[in-house]
Design a protein that fits this description.
- By secondary structure, this protein is mostly beta strands.
- The protein contains no helices and seven strands.
- It has strands at 17-20, 27-34, 38-46, 52-60, 63-70, 77-85, 88-96.
- The strands form two sheets. A four-stranded antiparallel beta sheet has the order 4-3-6-7, with no helix packed on it.
- A hairpin with a 5-residue loop joins strand 3 and strand 4 (52-60).
- The chain is globular and about 40 Å long.
- The relative contact order is 0.28.
């Protein structure tokens, strides 16, 4: 079920898609907006790889949606989330880290 906002709301400005946390270890939440109703496909793929997963495929009304990607078995590295709304494509890069990476993940420093 989408969150509904007025068209003047800042959620309709800026990037049509974000993810958090980024970088992530096991899962990340992708938030995306649909400004006009239509067919939506959200896929995640790894650059220079055959890895691809379809997270969302179907008709959406206007609104803001979230989808969790549980990436537990996916290899560490850079990924692209690609949002296609009736042929209009937006992309967001994101990074899966190893749980043994010594650098803290944003928001999880404690």
């Amino acid at each position: 079920e989408p969150m509904l906002f007025s068209e003047d709301d800042p959620i309709y400005q800026g990037d049509p898609m974000t993810n958090y946390p980024d970088p992530f270890v096991n899962s990340t939440t992708i938030q995306y907006r649909v400004t006009e109703q239509g067919n939506v496909k959200l896929i995640v793929y790894k650059e220079n790889s055959s890895f691809k997963v379809i997270l969302v495929s179907g008709y959406h009304n206007k609104g803001v949606y979230t989808k969790v990607w549980n990436a537990g078995t996916a290899p560490v590295g850079k990924y692209i989330a690609e949002l296609n709304v009736d042929g209009a494509i937006s992309k967001e890069s994101m990074t899966k880290k190893s749980q043994w990476d010594p650098n803290p993940i944003e928001g999880n420093e404690n």
